[in-house]
Amino acid sequence: MLSTIFEKIDQLFEETVEIRRYLHMNPELSFQEVKTAEYIANYYEKLGIPYIKNVGGNGVIATLKGGKPGKTIALRADFDALPIQDEKDVPYKSTVDNVMHACGHDGHTATLLTLAKALHEYQEDVMGTVVFLHQHAEELAPGGAKPIIETGELDHIDAIFGTHLWVTEPVGVLQTSKSTLMAGSDRFEIHIQGQGGHGSAPHETKDAIMVGTHLVNTLQQIVSRRLSPLDTAVVTIGVFQAGSAFNIIADKATIAGTVRYLNEDVQKHVINEMETIIKGVCDSFHVTASLEYQEGYPPVVNHEEEAEIILKMGDLVPGVEESQEIQPVMGGEDFAYYLHDKPGTYFFTGANKEGNNYPHHHPKFDFDEEAMKIAAKSLFTAYQKFQNK
């Protein structure tokens, strides 16, 4: 069965590329993916595979019941884009200003669609039931995974697998972890209220920029001085906004950033330290500040037995040269929610494109489309191996 599906995936590769490039040219932002969802639904309509739309928002779920008894397993692909201007000089460049697929979700979607087409052709030979889960809004918390789960449409599945095309690794490499693969990812905003005034009379003001610079510097000490060296966390400031003119002392400032962590105790410790630092710094400068802290996706924690399936792919899937067990990466993913409820694993499929070394979320991001073959074959192999557990 595996070799037959592998051959069909190869035969459908040109179509996979066409779908990916169409989606790349027509991206939609998180929670706005109406046309993309319709495109996905229409694909299943033409195949004759039953599907439901508007799952938890813009999600689409298609179900293929094989001709042989077995378990019900979900395979997931996300399909939202990012608010980035596409700067690549390629024929399939995004046609939408300031929106692009800069993370590979177009490739995830194309991979899953043509895998569904391959399995549909050999439906009578398929063991169990394949749930093709197309998820919206991975890039923007609260994300699409949680509302999809809350609909109950996945209650009946026995396991779930997903992959991410990963441009930091060469084609032919798979990566995963038997436990935590990706970090929890939160965001925060700090709003400082001081007292503005003329730049020539700083003693008559409460300088919000001065307070903000102290906060930025001191918040960095949470990781370097207030956490155990054995704990892992990130506190990154990505936004510092203040001021309106060169000779006016700002009365307001906004600082925004992200916190990444691998366990909840560290997350709580970081939040407590942030609150203490903000109060201490602001009290010393006689200003006020508010902290808006938004808990995002929890860590992605794989299940060991299912991760072992991925780690054996080098002996099972053509094109996979190595399957590596890795330390966690500090990026976030709402695939975490699926793994809270069901066994499964998430893994990376190497997709580095020769001559294009731009990372995920870069305006010139691109990936080697050959990786989509490996992703499709690996997902179906994981499906098959779980059936035989």
Helix amount, in percent? 25-40%
| Strand tally | 16
Mean pLDDT equals: 97
Through-space gap between termini: 16 Å
- pLDDT < 50 stretches: none
Structurally, the number of domains stands at: 2
CATH class of the largest domain: Alpha Beta
What are the secondary-structure elements, in order, as H or E? Answer: HHHEEEHEHEEEEEHHEEEHEEHEHEH
Strand portion: 25-35%
| Strands ordered across the widest β-sheet | 1-2-4-3-5-16-6-15
CATH homologous superfamily classification of the largest domain:
Zn peptidases
Q: From the 3D structure, determine the CATH topology of the largest domain.
A: Aminopeptidase
Labels describing this entry:
2 domains; about 25% strand; four-stranded antiparallel β-sheet; alpha/beta; 16 strands; Aminopeptidase; 11 helices; Alpha-Beta Plaits; about 400 residues; eight-stranded mixed β-sheet; about 35% helix
